[in-house]
Design goal:
heterodimer; A: alpha+beta; Translation Initiation Factor IF3; 4-stranded mixed β-sheet; 30% helix; B: Rossmann fold; 2 domains; 6-stranded antiparallel β-sheet; 5-stranded parallel β-sheet
Chain lengths: 76, 347
Amino acid sequence: MTRVTVDARRLLCPMPVIRVQNKVRELEPGAIVEAICTDPGALNDIPAWCRINGHKVLETRSEDGEHIIVLEVGSK
Amino acid sequence: MKKQYKAAALISGGLDSMLAARVIQDQGIYVEGLNFFTGFCVEGHTHAIRKKDRNKPKRNNALWVAEQLGVKLHFVDVVEEYKDILFNPKHGYGANLNPCLDCKIFMVEKALEWIKENDFDFIITGEVIGQRPKSQRKDTMPVVARESGAGDLLLRPLCARNLPPTRPELEGWVDRQALFDFSGRTRKPQMALARRFGFEDYAQPAGGCCFLTDAQYSDKLADLWQSRGQKQYELDDIMLLKVGRHLRPGPEFKVIISREEGEGNFLQGYRDRFVSLKTTSHAGPLALIDGEAGEAGLELAARLVARYSQGRDAERVELEIREKDGSTRTLSVAPLQPHEIPKEWRL
């Protein structure tokens, strides 16, 4: 299964969402994307973007000042 | 079978674009949203940076609106392309460095490209005649349609009945009689319509989130251009303009001084790009030097930073000077007194 990481550290929203969106465009449904962010706004924005665009958030967690959102690409 | 028409809605996150999209959805049109990121829509950024704002609810209003409407939202990164609009606005600036009319033309032009690539039929915006002094006037509405190339594929549902019919109306894709004739700066019709749709929570309308309409921000951007001898910027530059105190003791350099812990943490991320200063003998801010200060300028900057530290009344304050390569040294200075800081330094 395809699994990719999007490094969105030091980027402020909505840039992390844009980075995730652009990566998801390149991937097939079922691929896993792990976004690593430092802007806590990403914890709201990326899941919201996933909900409205049909992708599934598998996990969100925060550790050492970093916020990680793991999602599965849905059908486009 | 009747064709399912599709519209791309420019979604800013404010009330008007939310209402416009909803009005068109109510006519059975399939709608998806577009949100253009220029780099200047940065309210969320300052909330993310400043510690005192950390507990404020954070939401991207465009995403939130899309979720309320049940539509997909596509962010379009136009940071690089937008520079041409900002540097050379054909229709000039507004009260500050806001090229509102050119900006609207540009966004509709980008939306036109998008609908062609994605097989959509027309574009909708939340524009209302007379709502904004520069870009939303009766005489500028046709300019946006014409110069963007969208022509009669650009529909403004909130004021459509004050304008000539567009193709979606003429072809019967939408019912013109079910569109609106709002005009002027009053917000009452929009608020009444919001109530009708059951929208109780929405971003404060009018004014938008563009920092280019802010006089102080525009002054700092103009100073940036002047100091570099040309109109140019990178995304980091325009982010930094929103953070900290900016003081320019001389034409060769300016000092960016954090105002609180959150800003200090944010500026730390730039220490590999700028010479930085941090007080060590007393609690105090982190500062960046933007430009070439030279030894005398660096000492002046250190005295300035000391002034904003807890050691402002001390005889001497020690600071760590960190070069871009990570090497450090210590400087001991007398803090500047308030009368030694001309107001012209403050940007």
